[in-house]
Design brief:
Elements: E1 2-7, H1 11-21, E2 27-33, H2 36-46, E3 50-54, H3 62-71, E4 77-82, H4 87-96, E5 100-103, H5 108-119, H6 130-137, H7 155-165, H8 170-177, H9 181-195, H10 200-209
Parallel strand pairs: 1-2, 1-3, 3-4, 4-5
C-alpha cells in the first residue's frame, strides 16, 4: 500500500483527492495538512511514501516545505500540485527534489499513474514539459561543437532526454522512437554517465540548465 499525505490549503481539494484515491486498491491517504508549517510536522510524524504538495500554501510555501524537508533528510517522494503551468515553479521544484509536477485539474487516471510511476523511481512532469518537449524535438539543433559536457550527448540521446523531461517511461520512449526498450535503457545509462548525475530528474534539470532542452 502506498501511503500518501495530501497538502493543500483548500479543504474541498484535500477531500476530493482523498475520495478519488480511495477508489484505488494500492493507494491510501494517511494524513492531510492545510499549510506549510503543518505539512512539515505531519510529514515528519507520519513518514509517508509520497506527498501530494500544493505549491502555494499559507505560512510556508510548498517549495519551502520541499527545501526544509530536503535539508533535514526527511523528504519523501513528492509530486507538486498547482493551478498554473509555471516553468519557474517547475524548475525550482526540481531543484528542491520534487519528482513530479501536475496541474490540479488532473484526472484520477493520470494522478494514480503519476503516483505509481514516481514510486517506481521515475519522474512525472506532465503536462508542464510534455507538449513543449515533444514539439521541440524536431527543432533541436544537432549541429554543435560542444555542449559543455566531457562527452557531448548524441542527437538520439538528446531526443531521449527530451522525452524523459516529458515524463515518459522507457517503454513509451521506445514506442515513440520506434526502437527497443533495452536500447532506451542503454541511452538513459549513457545520458546519466555523460551528465554526471544519479537519476532522471537531475538529468532533465542539467539538460535544461545547459540549454539542451
Amino acid at each position: 500500500m502506498i501511503r500518501v499525505v495530501v497538502v493543500d490549503d483548500h479543504t474541498l481539494m484535500r477531500s476530493g483527492i482523498r475520495g478519488l484515491l480511495a477508489l484505488t486498491e494500492d493507494i491510501c491517504v494517511v494524513a492531510e495538512a492545510g499549510d506549510g508549517e503543518e505539512a512539515i510536522r505531519i510529514i515528519r510524524e507520519s513518514k509517508p511514501d509520497l506527498v501530494l504538495l500544493d505549491v502555494r500554501l499559507p505560512k510556508i510555501s510548498g517549495l519551502k516545505v520541499l527545501e526544509t524537508l530536503g535539508n533535514q533528510g526527511n523528504l519523501p517522494f513528492t509530486i507538486l500540485l498547482t493551478t498554473f503551468d509555471d516553468d519557474e515553479v517547475l524548475l525550482q521544484g526540481m531543484r528542491a527534489g520534487a519528482k513530479g509536477f501536475l496541474l490540479k485539474d488532473v484526472s484520477l487516471e493520470r494522478l494514480v499513474s503519476a503516483i505509481r510511476r514516481v514510486m517506481a523511481g521515475e519522474s512525472c512532469f506532465r503536462p508542464a514539459l510534455t507538449e513543449r518537449t515533444l514539439d521541440g524535438i524536431k527543432n533541436i539543433d544537432h549541429d554543435f561543437d560542444s555542449l559543455g559536457f566531457p562527452f557531448p550527448l548524441t542527437p538520439r540521446e538528446i531526443e531521449v532526454l527530451a522525452l524523459i523531461a516529458g515524463g515518459y517511461n522507457n517503454m513509451e520512449i521506445a514506442n515513440a522512437l520506434g526502437t527497443m526498450e533495452g536500447t532506451v535503457k542503454n541511452h538513459v545509462s549513457s545520458i546519466l554517465s555523460k551528465l554526471g548525475v544519479r537519476d532522471r530528474v537531475q538529468a532533465v534539470f542539467k539538460g535544461i540548465d545547459r540549454g539542451v532542452l
